[in-house]
Amino acid sequence: MKPFRLVVIVASFSIFFAAFCGVVFALDQDEVRVSVAWSSEIYSRGSSQTVTVLLISDSSEQLTINYFGLHVDWMDSDQFIGSDLSDDPVIIPAYGNEYFSPITIQIPEDVSVGPHSYFLGIDGIQGVSTSFSWDSPTLTLVVQNSGIDIYSELVNKVGGNISEAVNANYQSSEAKSLLNQAQNVYDQALSLGNEEKWNEAISALQDASTYLEQADNEEQKHIETNTQQDTLLIIVGVAVVVTVLIITLVMIKRKQNPIVDQQTKT
Predict the structure, then answer these.
(1) Would you place residue 17 in the very low, low, confident or very high pLDDT band (cuts 50, 70, 90)?
(2) DSSP string of 210-266, one letter each residue
(3) Do residues 161 and 197 touch, judged by C-beta distance below 8 A?
(4) How, if at all, do strands 43-44 and 139-144 pair?
(5) What are phi and psi for residue 190, nearest 5 degrees?
(6) E strand or H helix at 134
(7) What topology does CATH give the domain 26-144?
(8) β-strands 90-92, 63-72: how paired?
(9) Which of 41, 171, 250, 262 has CA 20 to 30 A from 80's CA?
(10) Radius of gyration over alpha carbons of the chain, in Å?
């Protein structure tokens, strides 16, 4: 029985050792933070985005990063886009931070329009030898129609608004200046559209729309100010007329009083 017991003990120890060596510990959620910056805030179908990731360590131990990648919900469950750093790991000192090399994300043409979730995953070593795997909290981006669709819709809308503003014949000098800026930026958007730089063109159209809103606000302020001035002038005019009328009546009455006095004396 002794040889059997020895075999069982050795086998049990081997299984335990193998299992232990394969364990990957999870880094505490509050020991790492990430900041994810996309090259554009317009997430349109078919567009390509450059993503820059900043990792901020709140760990009291050094972190050695071997893998990092971004997973978006339209990918396969085990798919990440990032970098294999195992041959040249990124070393982050305790309470340090590090920018990873930018990665490129292609938003599929057929992905659904609307909100999509994504997160960053990293694998590495904490301290000297503690392996870890860490996933960031889930973040959200909102996918829009393809750039050309958004551009086509905006270019018609903003162009129409510019025409209305021109026909309104603004009187405010500030409103005129803002309208002129809107027209210039709109022209830039058209040039960018001709070059098929959809994201830049859309951004320019949004800027032009903002200028138009500001111009309209300035014109409304101008109208309100002039209305108040006109009202004040009317009030002053009425006051002057009333004053003149009162003075005239007083003078007429004074002229009549001597005649009455003379008749009384007679």
Answers:
(1) very low
(2) HHHHHHHHHHHHHHHHHHHHHHHHHHHHHHHHHHHHHHHHHHHHHHHHHHHHHHHH-
(3) no
(4) parallel
(5) -60, -40
(6) strand 130-135
(7) Immunoglobulin-like (2.60.40)
(8) antiparallel
(9) 41
(10) 38
How does pLDDT run across 83-134, given as a tens digit for each residue? 999 999 999 999 999 999 999 999 998 999 999 999 999 999 999 999 999 9
- Angle of helix 173-194 relative to helix 147-167, nearest 10 degrees? 150
Token pair listed for 31? 């020991």
pLDDT tens column, 146-203 = 878 888 889 999 999 999 999 989 988 899 999 999 999 999 999 999 998 888 999 9
Question: For the chain, which residues make up each domain, given as ranges?
Answer: 26-144, 147-249
Cα separation, 190 vs 111, whole angstroms = 27
Q: What is the pTM of this model?
A: 0.53
